[in-house]
Amino acid sequence: MTTIALERDTTEASAVAAVVGGVDTHKDTHTAAALDSAGRVLGTQGFPATAAGYRALLAWLESFGRLLLIGVEGTGVYGAGLVEHLQQRVRLVEIDRPDRKSRRFAGKSDPLDAVAAARAALGQVQTGTPKQRGGPIDALRTVRVARRSAVQHRATVMRQLKALIVTAPDSLRGQLRDLPDGALIRTCAALRPAVGDPLDVAVAEPLVASKVALRSLARRYQQLTEDIAELDELQTPLVAALNPTLLTRCGIAVDAAGQLLVTAGDNPDRLTNEAAFAALTGTSPVPASSGRTQRHRLNRGGDRNANCTLYRIVLSRLRYDPRTREYVQRRTAEGLSKKEVIRCLKRYVAREVYYDLTASTA
C-alpha cells in the first residue's frame, strides 16, 4: 500500500510540474497564462513587450514547473519579438484567435485570451509551428513590404491622375486623354502651370489648378517608379541566392518567387506536406458536404498574397506553357468551366512549388 501511495504521489507531482503557457500579444504588453497538464489555471500576469519583459515572462512560466510548450497568438505581428526570443529556448506553437462563439459567452479580456491560448496549445487545437525570425527571408519580407506599398500607391496615383483628366478643362483634356500611360506621365510631369503670374494667384483658374495637380501626381508616380526599381535591385539577387530553382519554373519571376519564399518562411520544414502548403496558400478545396450532398467549396483563407501570386503564375502558363493549354482543353471537354480549371491549376502549382521550397531546405 505504501509503495502504491508513493507512486501515486510521484505521478501527481510530475503532473503538476508539467506546465503549458499561453500568451496574448499586444503592441506594448503581453499577457501570459500558465496551466498545469490537467488544464487548471496556475496564474496570469502581464509583461512589457521588451527584451527584459520577454525574459521575465519566460522566468515566470518556468517558476511553476517544467515548461512543456507555449502557445502564442499573433506570432507574425505583435508577438514577433517574443517568438524570436523564445524560439531557441522552448517549444512554441502558433495559436489561432479564440473562437467567436466561446468569446461571446465567456467574455473578452487579455487574461482570458491568454488562458484560451494555453488551452489551445495543450489540446493542440488548430496550432502550427511559427515562422523563424531574423533570417534572410525575414529580410526579404521587409523589402517586399516597402515594394508592395509603393506598387499600390503608384496604381492609386495613376487612377487619380486619369480621374482628374476626365474633369479637366476641354483644352487640357483633349491634349491628354488619348496618350498611353508612359507618354501621359511624361507630359503631365512637364506641364508648366503658370506663366508670369504668382502661382498662388494663378491657381484660382481651373486650367492652372488642373495642371498643378496633374504635374504633382505625375512626378509622384515617377518617384514611386524609381523606388520600386531600387527595391527590385535589392530583391532580385536575394531571391536568386535563396532559391534559384524557383526562377527556372515557367511563369515564376522574381516577384512571384519572393512572395512564395516569404509565405514559406525561413523554416519551410514546418509545413508537413504539400497539402499543408496548399491550405496555407488558400488553394486547397474545403469540404462542404452534408448528408447526401457531397461537395467542396472555395477556400477563402490562407495567405491571400500567395494565392494571388499562384493565380498570376497560372495566367502566365495559360499563355506560354503548352502543357497547361493541353490540360485546359482536356478539362474543358470534361465539362469544367474556366474558373474551375484555374482553381485546379493553382492547386497543382502549389504542389510543384512546395517541393522546390522544401528541397532547398533539405
Structure description:
- The protein has 362 residues and is α/β, with parallel strands linked by helices.
- It has 3 domains: 17-128, 2-Layer Sandwich (Nucleotidyltransferase, domain 5), CATH 3.30.420; 136-242, no CATH class; 245-287 and 298-361, no CATH class.
- It is 60% helix and 12% strand.
- It is built from 16 helices and 8 strands.
- It has helices at residues 2-17, 51-62, 80-86, 100-106, 110-123, 136-166, 170-176, 181-189, 199-202, 206-242, 244-247, 254-264, 274-280, 304-320, 322-333, 338-361, and strands at 18-25, 29-36, 41-48, 66-73, 92-95, 127-128, 286-287, 296-297.
- Strands 3-2-1-4-5-6 form a 6-stranded mixed β-sheet. Strands 7-8 form a two-stranded antiparallel ribbon.
- α14 packs across α16.
- The relative contact order is 0.07.
Q: SSE layout and pairings?
A:
Elements: H1 2-17, E1 18-25, E2 29-36, E3 41-48, H2 51-62, E4 66-73, H3 80-86, E5 92-95, H4 100-106, H5 110-123, E6 127-128, H6 136-166, H7 170-176, H8 181-189, H9 199-202, H10 206-242, H11 244-247, H12 254-264, H13 274-280, E7 286-287, E8 296-297, H14 304-320, H15 322-333, H16 338-361
Parallel strand pairs: 1-4, 4-5
Antiparallel strand pairs: 1-2, 2-3, 5-6, 7-8
Helix pairs in contact: 2-3, 6-10, 6-12, 8-10, 10-12, 12-14, 13-16, 14-15, 14-16, 15-16
Number of helices: 16
Helix content: 55-70%
CATH superfamily of the largest domain: ATPase, nucleotide binding domain
Q: CATH top level of the largest domain?
A: Alpha Beta
